[in-house]
Design brief:
The structure holds two protein chains of two kinds. By secondary structure, chain A is an all-alpha fold. Chain A has 13 helices and no strands. Chain A has a single domain, classed as MetI-like (MetI-like fold). In chain A, α9 runs parallel beside α10 and α10 packs antiparallel against α12. The longest helix of chain A has 37 residues. Chain A is globular and about 70 Å long. By secondary structure, chain B is an alpha/beta fold. Chain B has a domain of 175 residues: 3-Layer(aba) Sandwich (Rossmann fold), CATH 3.40.50.300. Chain B has an eight-stranded mixed β-sheet, with helices on both faces. Chain B has a three-stranded antiparallel β-sheet with strand order 2-1-4. In chain B, α6 packs parallel to α7. Classes of the chains: A mainly alpha, B alpha/beta. Chains A and B meet through α8 and α9 of A and α3 of B.
Amino acid sequence: MLATVRDLFNYNRQFRLGAILVAAVAGMAALSLASPYPPLDTFVVAPDLPPSLAHPFGTTSRGQDVFWHLSFAIRNTLLFGIVVALMSRVLALAIGLIAGYKGGWLDRLLMAINDTFIAIPLFPILVLVYFVLREAMSWAVLAGIMALLGWAYDARLIRALALSLKTRDFTHTGIFSGMSTRELLVREHLPYVLPIVFATSMNNMNWSIGLEVTLSVLGFTDINSPTVGGMIYWANQHTALVAGVWWWIAFPVLLLVALFIGLFLLAISMNEHIDPRSRLARIGAGGGA
Amino acid sequence: MSGASADAGAGDGGPVLKVEGLKAYYRTRHFGSAREVRAVDGVSFEVRANEIYGLAGESSSGKSTLIKAVAAALRPPLEVVAGTVTLSFLGTDKSIHQATAAELAALRWRKLSYIMQGSMSVLNPVRRVRRSFEDFAGRHLGRNAGFKARVLEHLALVGLEAAVLDAYPHELSGGMRQRVSIALASICRPDLIIADEPTTALDVVVQKEVLDMLRQLQRQMRSSLLLVTHDLGVHAYLTDRLAIMYGGRLVEEAPTATLFRQPQHPYARHLIASLPRIGDDREMGSLPGSPPNLAEPPSGCRFHPRCPLAQDRCRREVPVMTAIAPAHKVACFAVGGHA
């Protein structure tokens, strides 16, 4: 595992750049632990100061230091993506493996639900949920809802793999040797699909963070817990761009772009690593890896 | 490996496996019309203790269906319609198809084991060989300290080093993979091992090694082996007794040497005559026609449309396996024993 990461880092430029970008964003999130200001306090510094040595990213019109506030915001946003990815992965794995292996009416039922989730438009639903829940809408509730909405594509992918795994001889051997369905899925099939799931989780994080930012910018989330989208929402509320406080919007946007590109590069380089054909092509073309 | 003397006396006990009148059909329904493929249609034979019993037949003769039915590894649309399969270790009063799921689970791998066809996909490509042993055999042997010693000891028996345990299947050669899957199937020292084309994917040199190893293993464990393959060379090399299958039925059964020297059934005669011999430059004749469609098999003897000796009776009646000599049975009206 570690050797794989090291090789990818040494030989795959996309992976290297992606890893560096994600590590930088994660480092920014980790800095929140050292922040001199509590995340929700306002007017702790002079408002509307441009970037300087004392305030590297400037200060907001609400008297917050952009750098330190952003560290809290990116921490929440990153955690949001990870939590949504983890929860939806569990759903996608369970549903995909069971539907593919069991087949029959169970497969049809699960895939009918799956296709419903693929077909329904998510954004209006999330806005609707916000208007229904209002005050009750918190970071955790939104993460739960996103996880419930975000498993469908992967469940289909995993089901397709499970369909093929089901007919392999080692599955028959497992059944013949007396493995239970649960053991068979966890011990034989799960390790097979895990690398692919790992690659798609990056995409899932991008998807969930993107939606969360969209909702936050529009104010359809809990605006009191600092997130990157929430920062942009407040900046818009204070007409930061008109007022010339560009750093209030520019730095959150830059950080998000870095995160998106980083996760995307990780996802495609993982994809390439998992798909042996593209690996072979790279060996043939580059002669290096 | 001192006790592995080849003269231990093959088949020196009572039957381990007894199949009687077994019929296994594939039954499907498509838009109201039922279709029935009679892949195994009235097969009887015995496998004795400490014996290698061969089952030969061309593709679609029902070999694979037969071993699925014998191992009770049935999945729809395959059904056992009639007949019994009794195993000495299950109690001879009961067919394996009447056994409960718990009885079957206690039986499989420990008493009755199965070597899969080919060697590419028997092992999980993303699990180390060690994990495959733990997954498949661990439950039967207990995952304790003794387990690893037992695995190592058994690997040595099939000529493999401990290092293969840490390898992934793709890191092993085809022959090594097949040895691993044979070791997996035999580690519990089962009474009966069913081997389905165990050497098909291997080249002849590796094939011979694996076959030698298989025989040595069988002699040492004194298990019975039911070997199924279309490769008559493998049968000649390995089996003690041989049965030939055609169109879902057995047509002849005899000690292997007898069957190769004096085949009686017209199909068996053609089959044996078609084998090339060293220094033989005859042109091999082939039988007209093709194997029967088992969804609509011919009446009477299933070989009669292609048989040079066919009589009227062959079209109407089904010949039964009849002894023409001790241990030599043939199902044919044209051959001695049938009045």
